[in-house]
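Researcher: Structure prediction, please.
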Amino acid sequence: MTSSITLRLATFAYGPEMMALALLTPLLCLGACAAPRLAGARPFLLAAAPVPALLAAVLAADSAPLILDQMLFPAVFVLDPPGALLLATSALMWIAAGLYAVAAMRDAARKGWFAASCLLTLLGNIGVFLAADVVSFYLAFALVSLPAYGLIVAQRGVSEDVGRLYVAVALLGEAFLIAAFVALALGAPDHSLLIQDGVGALAASPWRDAVIGLLIAGFGAKIGVLPFHVWMPSTYRSVSLPAAAALSGAAVNAGVIGLLRFLPFDVVFAGWGDALFVVGMIGAFYGVAIGLTQRDSRAMLAYSSVSQMGLVAAVIGRGLTVGSALSAQGAALYAAHHGLAKGGLFLAIGVVLSARGKRRAWALPIVTLLALSLAGLPPTGGAVAKLAIKDSFGGGIAGILSLLSAVASTLLMLTFVARLRATPPLEEKTVAPGVVAPWLLVALASVAIPTVYYAETSGFAGVFDPTFFWNALWPIAIGALLALIFRRAIDHAPHIPAGDMAALLRRGAPLAALTARCAERIDRVLRRWSVAAAMALAIAVALGAIGLIGR
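Model: Predicted structure follows.
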C-alpha cells in the first residue's frame, strides 16, 4: 500500500509529461501506420496506442496541468477525478478492442483506412477527457465523432445510408456545440477560453438558457438522447465487433464528459434539469421497448445503450435541478461501468458465436453476469454504479422510475442472452486464439474499477449493506420473472427496424423520399474538393475567431 502511494506521488511531478505522452502516442502510431513496410504492425499499434493514456489516468490524476502556450490559443490539459475515471475505462476498452482486432481480424486491421480511423478517434477520445479549454475540447470532440465514419465504411456491404445518418447527427451536434462554445467564450471573464471560467460565468449570462439548451442538444446527440439516438443502432450493427466495443464503451463517454464539464452544477437550473430528467427517463424505457423487438443481438445492445445513456442523462438532470455536483460524480461512475460492460458484451458476441460445446457453455454464464450488471446485479460493478446514483433519484416518483428502469433493463438483457444463445455458431471451429483474454479483462475490470473508485470516494460501508443488496436484487428478480412469462410474446413481437424513427421515415413517408433526393444532391456537392476546402476554411475561421476572442 505504502509503495503504491509513493509511486503515485512520484508521478505527480511527471503528470504533464504523462498527459503529453498519452496525446502524442496515437499520433506517432498514426505516422507509423502510414509506412507501407509497417502494415503488418498496424494491429499491434492499435492495442499499444492507448497504454500511455491508461497509465496517465491511474498515476497522474490531479497532477499539475499541461499548458501549451506557444500556439494561437493557450491549450490547457488537466486530469481531474471524473476525467481520470472515464479516461481509464475508455483507454482499457480501446486496448481490449485492439487486442481483439489483433487476434480475430488482423487482415482488416492491417488496412490503413481502418487503422487511421481508429487512431484518430482514439486521439480525440483521450483529448476530451484531458482538455480544459474550449478550443482543445472542440477539436478533440470533432476527432471522436468524424473519423469514426471510416470505421463504418470500412465494413463491406454496409449501406451508405448508415454512414450518412451517422455523419448527419454528428455534424448537427457539432453545430450546436460550436454555437454554445462561442457564447461561453464571449461571456467568460476577459473572454477566457478555459472551460471552468466560461461555466462559472454562465449563471449571470443573458444567453444562459440558450447555451444550456445547445450544450444538452450537442452532447445529447453523442450519447444518444432522444431523438438523436437514431444513429446508434444502425452504426453499432454495421461496424466490426471491436469497433462497436470501442464506440459504445469509450467514444460515447465523450458526450458524458462534455455534459459534466460544461453544465453548471453549482447553480440550480430546475427547468433544464427537469426537462433533461424527463427526456432521459423516456429514453431509458424507450430503449428497452424498441430493443425487445430487435432480432439482431448488436441492435439489442445498441438500444440498451440508448436506455443506459438515458439514465445517465436523467441523473445529470437531477443534478441540475438541485444544483449538486454529487450527481455529476455518480453519472461519471455509472457511465464508466456502462462503457466496460457494454464494450465487453460486444466482444462477447464474437466469443460466443465462435465457440462450440463446452467453450460456449462456460462463456454464456459470464455473458449473463455481465449483461445483468447493467441492471445492477450485486456484487457486480453495476450494483456499485447503481449505488452511486441512488441519492440523485432519492424517493418519490424519480426513485420509483429508477427501480422500474432496473426491471426493464433486466428484461432486455435476459432477452439478449437468450437470443445470443439461440444463434448458431459461425463457421469457424473454435474461438480465435487471443480473443478470450481481452474480453475477460474487460469483464473483470467492470467489477474492479467501479468498486475501487467508489471505495476511494465513498467507502465500502454502503456496498455491503444488506438493505442495499435487497433493493438491488428484487428489481432484477421481477425482470427475470417477466422475461420468463413473456418470452413467447417477445419472440413474436412485431419487428421494428434498427434506427426506428429514421428507418420508418425512409420506408414510408413521401417527405423522406424528397429528403433523400436532396441529401444525394448535397452529398454530390460536398464531394467536390472546392466545397470541402471551403467548409474546412469555415471551420478554421470559426476556431480562429474563438481564439481571438480569448486574447
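Model: Confidence is low (pLDDT under 50) at residues 1-10, 508-516, 525-551.
Researcher: Thanks, that helps.
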